[in-house]
Each structure stands twice: as C-alpha cells, then as structure tokens.
Write a structure and sequence with these properties.
Shape: globular
Low-confidence stretches: none
Radius of gyration: 18 Å
Number of strands: 12
Order of helices and strands: EHEHEEHEHHEEEHEHEHHEHEH
CATH architecture: Alpha-Beta Barrel
Distance between the termini: 13 Å
Structural class: alpha/beta
Strand order of the largest sheet: 1-2-3-5-8-9-10-12
CATH topology: TIM Barrel
Largest sheet: 8 strands, parallel, barrel
C-alpha cells in the first residue's frame, strides 16, 4: 500500500484564521490527512496560549472536504468518554465520515495541575486509557453500552445517533512498549508515535506486531503512523519546539530534499502507512509547498 502523507497542526500561538489557511492549503496540495492536538496550554509547557481541541477539530472539518480529519491525541484525562463519544459522532456526521479519533494517556502535568485534574501515576493514566478506549468503542458501536471499571462505569448508556462510519477508527498514541503498545494491539484500529528516528520507530512497530501475535491478531489490521517535524534550519527548529528541541530532533526533517526523501523512505520501508508532518506556528507554508512538490512524489515513485 502506498504511504499516505498528512499534516498535524499545533494549536498554540496561532489563530483559527491562520489554521484554516494552512488546512485548506494542505488539502489543495494533496495531503491525505490533517489533525489537531488536545492541549489547554502550549505543549512546550512554557506558554499558555492554545486553542481548544474539539472546536478546532470542527473548524478543520468545516475548512476541508476530502482529507481525513484526525486528532493526535485526545487525552483520556480531560473528558468523560461519553462526552467525547457523542462529540465524535457529531463531528463524523459533520465531516461525512472523515473523522479518525486518536486517544492518549496524557503527559503535560502543567495542565492537569492548573485545572485541578487528577494527573495520577503513569500506571493509573494507562489503566484509565485502556478503559477509555473500550468505553469509546462500546458507545460508538453498540445500541446500549455497559462497562464497569476502575475509572468509568456505563449502564445501558446510549450514544445516539451513531457516526456516519460503520466503524469510526480509533488510534492510540504513544510508544511505551509494555503497556501502551499492548493496549493498541488489543483495542485500536491505528497507532501513532511522534518524533522518533526511522530505526527507533521500526523497533517500536516490531514490538506492536509482537503484541498482536501474542493475542492472535493480524498486525496488518492496525494502521501504523509516525509524526515528524520539519524545519528550515536549527534556528527554526528551536523556534518551533523550544525546550523540547533535543527530544524531537531525531524525528525532524531538515537539510536537502534528498535527505528528506531518504528519511521518508526509511519510515516507509519500516512499515509506516502514514507520515504526518507536524507543524507549529509560525507556519512556514513554503516548506510545506516544497515537501508536497518535491519530497512526496520522490518517495511515492521510489
């Protein structure tokens, strides 16, 4: 299957007007996917300016007509699953069946502490995520959902109407090998992880496949994807990612077109089905134009 390309737009330090311009441009350039994130504050934990995710997701849908409209990722700690299930149903109808729901355990403690949300231990957040994805699938697919867990309980709970899609895809975001990838293997339709080199990504994908094999699931039934950064140079990289620069560097496209083609090809060879370019304001659309015009065609014809 030919690799698909997407754009992931951060919601910090920007406006809906600027985002819609980027979204429309991305769709016109031929990208297959556009997504938003879920943060209350800037994701570098320095600033506080970030637009709200659900409203931005709806704005993305309204600004486009063809691309898949994803989320990377909604935090299991921010909304009850029944709230998000009803929201996703409405968004999927609004988009005529183009929504992909990404879920994650959450990681930016600053947001939790600021709003009095229970952050919990890593183990607690992952247990909550596993319950969350099960609740979401039940609510989105069953007439009545029943679930009894440590964090969530559903009793003959209805999510009515249903999404346009017979099975709205749910992806899990994260790279934890023991728990997160097991959750993805057991419950998810897709998997995403950001800012890893092709080799590290390949190693994670292999672990996901092993989890699938242990439970008797075909590994190819899970869509595998990676988020990568793109920067003009070191100055631009630091401007985008601040104190997170060193953490993301291995998964950022910089340098010549050929270097980008080679890096994209390495992800493709490792089994990535979606390569999603993560962008943050200020959005350099000239870089996006270059990537669409020179990198994508070279990868697809390689």
């Amino acid at each position: 299957m030919p690799i698909k390309f997407g754009v992931h737009t951060g919601l910090q330090n920007t406006t809906i007007a600027d985002l819609q311009s980027v979204w429309r441009r991305s769709e016109a350039l031929g990208f297959d996917w556009i997504s938003i994130w879920d943060h209350f504050y800037a994701a570098d934990a320095v600033g506080t300016h970030s637009l709200e995710a659900v409203a931005a997701h709806a704005a993305l849908i309204a600004a486009t007509s063809r691309v898949q409209c994803g989320s990377l990722v909604y935090s299991a700690g921010y909304r009850h699953p029944a709230v998000l299930a009803n929201t996703m149903t409405t968004l999927d109808q609004l988009s005529n069946g183009r929504v992909v729901l990404g879920l994650g355990a959450g990681w930016l403690r600053t947001e939790y502490d600021a709003y009095g949300l229970d952050y919990g231990t890593p183990s607690e957040r992952l247990r909550k995520l596993e319950e969350y994805i099960q609740c979401m699938r039940l609510l989105l697919s069953e007439d009545r959902a029943n679930f009894s867990g440590e964090f969530f309980d559903l009793t003959d709970a209805a999510c009515d109407p249903k999404p346009d899609q017979a099975r709205l895809p749910i992806w899990i975001g994260g790279g934890g090998e023991k728990v997160t990838l097991r959750i993805a293997a057991q419950h998810a339709d897709g998997w995403n992880v950001p800012f890893m080199s092709p080799q590290v990504w390949a190693d994670k994908a292999a672990v996901l496949d092993q989890h699938c094999e242990r439970i008797g699931r075909d590994p190819s039934s899970i869509t595998k994807s990676v988020n990568v950064g793109i920067a003009k140079d070191e100055t631009d990289l630091v401007a985008q990612y601040g104190k997170l620069t060193n953490a993301v560097r291995a998964g950022v496209f910089m340098g010549s077109v050929q270097e980008m083609v080679d890096m994209a090809g390495a992800y493709c060879e490792a089994g990535a089905e979606y390569l999603i370019v993560a962008m943050r304001a200020p959005f350099h659309v000239d870089v996006l134009d270059m990537f669409a015009a020179e990198v994508i065609p070279a990868v697809r014809t390689a």
